[in-house]
């Protein structure tokens, strides 16, 4: 998108201010320039050359979590997150991180291997810079234990075929989530296949202003995934699904027909036997489910089907938002703490549907008390009752 087109997009904002109540950074800082309306106004001025990209301005533009709450609330559907992500192309930011991210997301397997080797020095650096506290439960879960270990079983006479787009976080960190989903799909009679060629969806690169690199990954995914025959293509990461479904058209003119795991589970839940569970979970709606994919009721209905009761957290960002949590660790931590305001977090089990949110919540809740929705359903499977 060229400068003129971006200026046009900023003018979609009619300055009504309705979005402010939903913007996580505005709510936290109560500062107009950290909200959607202020950011759009600043973006227009920057694009027109009326102001320069000062450090203060960059903070305003880069601290947008790209959650999409504003666009969803906006009567004009003003594309604030797209404008914010697009602007980052020309902001001179984090050149080293950009080079690293370009390499890592183009070559995720090599990045995975290097992260295993560099785990201890990296951990030391994160603690030293106070990005993650030394006693964080996150460190209980080290990349030395990560692994892309799942292999779907071969099905005999399957009723259909499901393609699982794992996404980088599940492929290299939370592979047990893929195993859980594969188990549910298999039990409901489907064969699950993993694409031989899977590339990062491009969302992390978009967040860093590497739009052209994201476009290249999008084209590769469209080429390889588009050629696969399947009854359903599913991912466990709402950000991947939102990117492929809603942002690929901006990048390439094409989309990918893919559903989020919550949508897939809604289709499959009546095909699997469940046993009654007892207890309560607290559910956090991932931003890209809520605002990108319009998913709100589905996860709650799924949890209720297991017999568990569920308390929904009010809408709000967990503070992960990819590079945001590294660039703005204090804001990220404040958003995380905000999630548990007025609650005794010591006693809760939190469920959500996004690997990024899980990673963030594991900074404050121990592993085992932060679960993906797919684990809630897997735990309830009654294979003997089949
Ligand atoms: S982005 Fe939309 S909701 Fe927000 S101030 Fe502009 S027009 Fe109003
Ligand atoms: S995308 Fe989210 S963080 Fe960014 S301006 Fe909109 S509501 Fe605020």
What do you see in this structure?
The chain is of the alpha/beta class. Among the domains are: 3-87, Fumarate Reductase Iron-sulfur Protein, Chain B, domain 2; 274-380. Helices cover 48% and strands 8% of the residues. The chain has 21 helices and 8 strands. Strands 2-1-3-4 form a 4-stranded parallel sheet, with helices on both faces. Helix 20 links the parallel strand 7 (350-352) and strand 8 (370-372). Helix 3 packs across helix 6, helix 11 crosses helix 21 and helix 15 packs across helix 17 (297-305). The model has no long low-confidence stretch (mean pLDDT 88). One iron/sulfur cluster (SF4) binds at residues 13-19, 36-37, 40, 70, 73-74, 76, 78, 80.
Primary descriptors:
Fumarate Reductase Iron-sulfur Protein, Chain B, domain 2; 4-stranded parallel β-sheet; binds iron/sulfur cluster; alpha/beta; 8 strands; 48% helix; 386 residues; globular
Short structural summary:
The protein is α/β, with parallel strands linked by helices. Among the domains are: 3-87, Fumarate Reductase Iron-sulfur Protein, Chain B, domain 2, CATH 1.10.1060; 274-380. Helix content is 48%, strand content 8%.
- Which H/E pattern describes the elements? HHHHHHHHHEHHEHHEHEHEHHEHHEHEH
Q: How much strand? A: 5-15%
Q: Extract low-pLDDT stretches.
A: none
- Helical segment tally? 21
User: What do the pLDDT scores average to?
Assistant: 88
